[in-house]
């Protein structure tokens, strides 16, 4: 078992299972114990789970705690010290901002655990603090549904995001709103999904650009994606490619003079980030057989291969899957075709 699996099993054996097996437990408390079971399954790091347990170590007047103690059952408060000793090697293993990969999907639970909030009704803005001061803001932006839907102003770089509101009051003094307004350069870790029920995609760090105050009382932030992410940021290869293509398209829509002004202020050296991609271990016999079948002739344009390989002087053709492996295509001779580089690029982008 992995450390987190052992940690979950420990909590279940010490607290969850004895409580749920006790027939004297009230219906209300049983329901809350079952709800905590849902959360227990969401933790992927022992340190995050320890943070969750410690939040129960504050107020022992809690009705759940009182009822469990009356039945001589252990509570989270009772096991937190022993849990920390038992799993001391992993007690500091918590989710960090650098763990999130740009372009990867995340559940609301994963984001909430990182934010240290364990209520799925808590809204979409959370403040991370360091030394009692805001250090970052996390936002969950849903683009469809609700009275005040967030929206891309210019996808994927500029986002319209409504301030936190309570009873339709967009108080600029509310903690997450104030954290942004009082710290304009604070990093805003941005997760976006098209509609409720779908996973969130991490879009990286955004910065505050301005606020729009509508006449009916609503207010929304203008958030700008940080174009130069910090070194060491993780990103999905496909997401980076598609985002770059969007940015090229947006640049092409600028006037020549506007683009030249941006080039004057641009850094000459690109920031390096770590790119994560999915790779398939392909069958080498499929590639060899398709190239044998093609016999040096592109099976797209029917022209000879444009050059020969430096390694063995064989005609240079690339093997392309008609139905992509990423779309559940088969790695077979029947699903593959030998193409010259030009036809191969056409197959992907033409």
Task: Pick out its properties.
single chain; 350 residues; alpha+beta; PUA domain-like; 20% strand
Brief digest:
By secondary structure, this protein is of the alpha+beta class. It has helices at residues 3-21, 27-40, 46-54, 63-70, 76-86, 108-115, 175-181, 237-252, 256-265, 284-294, 341-349, and strands at residues 101-102, 105-106, 125-130, 133-142, 151-154, 158-162, 188-193, 200-213, 219-225, 234-236, 274-276, 318-321, 336-339.
Lay out the secondary structure.
Layout: H1 3-21, H2 27-40, H3 46-54, H4 63-70, H5 76-86, E1 101-102, E2 105-106, H6 108-115, E3 125-130, E4 133-142, E5 151-154, E6 158-162, H7 175-181, E7 188-193, E8 200-213, E9 219-225, E10 234-236, H8 237-252, H9 256-265, E11 274-276, H10 284-294, E12 318-321, E13 336-339, H11 341-349
Parallel strand pairs: 1-10, 4-7, 10-11
Antiparallel strand pairs: 2-8, 3-4, 5-6, 6-9, 7-8, 8-9, 12-13
Helix pairs in contact: 1-2
Give an overview of the whole structure.
- With about 350 residues, the chain is of the alpha+beta class.
- The protein folds into three domains: about 5-90, no CATH class; about 95-235, PUA domain-like (Roll), CATH 2.30.280; about 285-350, His-Me finger endonuclease fold (3-Layer(aba) Sandwich), CATH 3.40.1800.
- It is about 35% helix and about 20% strand.
- The protein is built from eleven helices and 13 strands.
- It has helices at about 5-20, 25-40, 45-55, 65-70, 75-85, 110-115, 175-180, 235-250, 255-265, 285-295, 340-350, and strands at about 100, 105, 125-130, 135-140, 150-155, 160, 190-195, 200-215, 220-225, 235, 275, 320, 335-340.
- Strand 8 and strand 9 (about 220-225) form a beta hairpin.
- The radius of gyration is 27 Å and the shape is globular.
- The mean pLDDT is about 90.
